[in-house]
Write a structure and sequence with these properties.
5% strand; mainly alpha; 49% helix
Length: 183
Amino acid sequence: MYRSSGEQIFARVEKIRHRAQRLLQGEGAAAPATPDDDAEREAIALAARVELRLPDLLSTFQLGPLAADVLVCLVAAEFDPFMRTVVRALQREIGRPWIELGTIAELLDLPPSRVPDLGALFASGGPIRRWSLAAVDDSVDAPVVSTRVKIATRVAQHLVGDDRLPDGLRRVEPRASLAESLV
């Protein structure tokens, strides 16, 4: 059972990290299948009323399993220092901290036939872009696999359980109820 949203996200990030390690070592094929207990752990946590933010976000924005995997991959690129090395190695660049859709496809072990679905998530009307869950670098007209994306910082923070408000904002507590209405 997951005890927190952050625990769920980072358990999934760890799977992406293992795939990235295999890619860097030249082992392109997927590792032998291991039982995936994520769905079971998620169900137990939700039954115990643990606030898991990924399933909530997916439900709110009506996103499917591919979008879930993509968001976790983007969170990995945001928080896992090892992923910075991976992105630099796979994309052969040291520029801004963006990850290409082709790199995401590699990390998720997507076949080429699924890359159009991945691209559709970030198209101008695609759900991840439409709901501003991630930014897309439109500065260059590039093939889908070279499209650069980055998760919105607040979305990444939310998914791992960070509830700090941005600078300049503060939480306002509801006022105590006033006397009974005269109407």
